Write the structure tokens for this entry.
Amino acid sequence: MNILITAGPTREYLDPVRFLSNRSTGKMGFAVAQAAVERGHPVTLVAGPVSLPTPPGVTRVDVVSAREMLAAIERCLPQCDALVMSAAVADWRPAQEAGAKLKKRAMSPLLQLVPNPDILQTLAPLKGRRVFVGFAAETGDPIEEAQRKLIDKGLDLIVANDVTVPGAGFAVDTNAVTLISAAPLGQVGSPKQPSLPPQVLPLQSKLDVGRVIVQWIEARCASLKG
Ligand code: PMT
């Protein structure tokens, strides 16, 4: 299986020295990439600005902004069987990016933003028989919001991540997540119950979380083929 994985934040520049971004370090996505390589899968890793070494055997594509990430995925997706979006993509960007550093005296205290494309929703029409996995980073009980994102983004699996849990979320080597799967093809999911019961995983290393996700993808790919 060719697996395409995204990791890290995106940066949305206001001028050459200022940007909007978030706390993602890329550790979760890089761990999924390492887990997939361990299982013998060819892996392409689209990484936002992070300072992590590339896991051996992984093909890495570096990007900066959400729009660059979308373009890189669009180039790679045709060769891929599965997409794992663990990147924390900025939902908004400054309406204008200045070519030179903005002078403090010339700046407005109000920043005008425009929405970035939602990468998963943009790619949904190209999904075909590919397996799409998303993450949902929430502050507090993530299940309801993750179930909404699973449906809105047309995913097979969403990894619900309460980033306020000690040892979970941003910038740590461990994570505590809950897997929420869409009902597989052939299994009827009513609009009120479109997903299977959530699978709560204990706090463990991000590499072990990555291993669980990769095994889930292998099983779903096998069931799609069978
Ligand atoms: O990188 P680390 O420091 O290891 O931290 C890991 C993590 C907390 C970043 C990771 O575990 C995680 O939760 N990643 C998803 C963060 C996120 O952006 O969640 P979201 O709920 O805002 O987005 C939902 C899904 O839509 C995600 O799969 C996201 O990649 C995708 N998305 C979001 C915005 C956008 N414009 N396009 C998208 O496709």
In short: The chain is about 25% helix and 25% strand. Helices lie at 27-38, 66-76, 119-123, 143-152, 206-225.
